[in-house]
Amino acid sequence: MESQDKILRPIYLSKRTFLGLKDLVIAFYAQKCPFQCSYCSLPTKSHPEPLPVKKIKQQIDWSFEQYADELSSFQQLSVGNEGSILDRERFPKEAIVYLLEQARAISSLKVLSLETRPEYILPATLEDIFHLTHAEIIDVTVGFETQDDYLREVILNKTIRRKNFEAKIKLLGEMGVRLTSYVLLKPGPTMTEKEGINEAILTIEYLAGVCQKFGTDLVIYLNPVYVAKGTPLAKAFSLHQYKPVRIQSVVEVIAETRDLNVPIYTGLWSENNTDGYGDYTVHKDYQPETRNALKQFNKTQDFALLQLFYQSKLDDRQYQSQLILL
What residue stretches are annotated with the Elp3/MiaA/NifB-like radical SAM core domain (predicted)? Predict the structure, then answer.
């Protein structure tokens, strides 16, 4: 049991530049997510039981106090609780109301981004948020991850059915809410590098097509998979001697989908949570320069920053093909 007097802190608090906007990012400490995604270790950082609303309000106050001198300059507020911030059992309506009341101090707010599972995207909930926020854009961020139903439902254990998700995308379009969708790069434990690239491209194409159909604005949050400690999927990765995706492949996915005109932000941090198989940095041909270019692309969406690295990969692929022919 948590002491009633203990002041809790968010799991994560930081700032970044997201698609050109100064973004305050908060992951609140709350009751752990009830779902059991096979690759996710974040529920181990959450509380096993419901938290009193006052404990969540304390986190809100503390978070805003840390950036009191620059609150007015933030243009985006991205909030979650390592589960679903729209889940009213784990983040009650009273807490959401308090959060958005305090967020009025962010006078330059353009985007309010709420991380959630699709089950909690409900018309009444979105209507409440429209009435409470002064943000120009409301965004919901969902971990759809992959268009491959077997990968998503069996390997990742997401329990996000395609038909249900498409219904939520339709609702977002009708209500004028933007979707940001996580897409995993190489999520299967037996996937080759090329299979991982192709699957990410197919997923982005699928999401772009559905969002276009329903008139829903879309942002892609592309995550190169890392092997998280202590997860069921980590055991499968170990069994199949999984190799994390190369950072050059992140560039390739962006390059091959840029004609869709969908903004892509890349997650380049493994949250200090990898096991022995690590992330893209374990490869001998890992290029810090590529990571730096991707960080700048995250801010500007200027593909010219990545063109040299993409061309280098194309040249390498052509060279390897010539060797096969010899």
Answer: 25-256
pLDDT at 230: 59
The dihedral sign for the CA sequence 255, 293, 197, 232: negative
Burial class of residue 106 (count of CB atoms within 10 Å of its CB; 0-12, 13-18, 19+): buried
Distances (CA, A) of 15 to 23, 190, 201: 5, 35, 29
Contact 64, 77 (CB under 8 A): no
Nearest to 89 by CA among 131, 123, 125: 125
Q: Where are the beta strands (DSSP E) in the chain?
A: 12-18, 21-27, 76-80, 111-115, 137-145, 178-185, 218-224, 264-266
Parse the chain into domains and list their residue ranges.
Answer: 1-135, 143-309
Q: How many CB atoms lie within 10 A of CB 201?
A: 19
* Partners of residue 114 on adjacent β-strands: 79, 140
| 300 phi/psi in degrees, rounded to 5 | -115, -25
- CA atoms lying within 13 Å on the CB side of residue 86: 23
Query: How confident is the model over 185-204, as pLDDT tens digits?
Result: 998 888 999 999 999 999 99
pTM of the complete model: 0.88
Q: Which residues contact residue 272 at a Cβ distance below 8 angstroms, ignoring those fewer than 6 apart?
A: none
Burial of 45 (0-12, 13-18, 19+ CB in 10 A): middle
Residue 127: both structure tokens together: 């209507």
Burial class of residue 41, CB neighbours in 10 A (0-12, 13-18, 19+): middle
For the stretch 146-172, pLDDT in tens is: 999 999 999 888 889 999 999 999 999
Q: Which two tokens stand for residue 197?
A: 């690239």
Partner residues linked to 171 by β-bridges: none
- Largest Cα separation within the chain, whole Å, is 73
Judge contact between 19 and 39, C-beta under 8 A. Answer: no
Alpha-carbon dihedral angle through residues 187, 192, 194, 199, given to the nearest 10 degrees: -30
DSSP 292-314: HHHHHHHHH--THHHHHHHHHHH
